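Researcher: We're teaching a course module on how sequence relates to structure. For the next exercise, students receive a sequence and then see the predicted structure as tokens, so they can try to spot secondary structure elements on their own. Here is the exercise chain.
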Amino acid sequence: MPLGYRGSYQRVRAYLHKKRTSPRPVVARPPSPRTVAGWILRRPETLPETEQLLLKTVRTHCPEIDALTRHVRAFAVMLTERQGERLPDWLAAVRQDDLPSLHTLAAGIDRDRDAVIAGLTLPWSSGAVEGHVNRIKMLKRQMYGRAGFNLLRKRVLLAS
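Model: And here is the predicted structure for the students to work with:
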């Protein structure tokens, strides 16, 4: 006698049909990491109420995301309100939590702490200079292998 199923094809088909057509419990898909990151990085007051509730749910289910959200928002306040003097306290709070990616960020900030504090405190910005450097590099890439330095110099001077 061969081993295997001794029933009929119709019995298997009926069993599977019942399983396929029975109502499944509706389970909400968890939000994607990109979506949660967007919620964390935006100002809390600009989030729609539904997204605030979803973020609150995620934060209650995951203590690491809750700690990350607190640290990111505290850093955002330092950045937007020019409160660089609070950086040492923020770094100490980051080191107390078990968030390896933020520990790496904190170590990088520590390597140049005075410059970061100055950047978070002082009103001056090198953004305009960085923009010009970026524009010159773009022109240089466009001109690569096409002409000599004289033409590149004219394009840089006339493009401004």
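Model: If you want an answer key for the exercise: Residues 63-80 form the longest helix (18 residues). The chain has nine helices and no strands.
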